[in-house]
Specification:
This protein has a two-stranded antiparallel ribbon with strand order 1-2. The protein is elongated, with a radius of gyration of 16 Å. β1 and β2 (about 15-20) form a beta hairpin. By secondary structure, it is α+β, with helices and mostly antiparallel strands. It contains three helices and two strands, in the order ββααα.
Length: about 90
């Protein structure tokens, strides 16, 4: 996968805003919006409203946290299926 950082743009509250993301983060962000049944712009607005730093960093951290949560959930499910333990 291409690790080149590309500038992307979305419209938030009627204004175009830009951020820079690597392709892997961009694809995960698109998938996240699709899984949550929302537009990319809606997801970016949500992330933007919670951020403390720059938008590009906030988007990367959001994607990372989502991936970590999904991995933890998958690990919990696999452990439950293997051991039969239910917490």
């Amino acid at each position: 996968m291409d690790d080149t950082v590309r500038k992307r743009s979305v419209t938030i509250a009627g204004h175009r805003t830009s951020f820079s993301l690597e392709e892997a983060f961009w694809q995960e962000l698109l998938g996240l919006a699709e899984r949550r049944d929302m537009t990319l712009a809606e997801l970016v607005v949500e992330i933007d409203s919670m951020r403390n730093g720059n938008l590009s960093s906030a988007l990367r951290l959001y994607v990372l946290r989502d991936l970590q949560a999904r991995l933890a959930d998958a690990t919990d499910i696999a452990t439950t299926e293997t051991t039969g333990d239910v917490e």
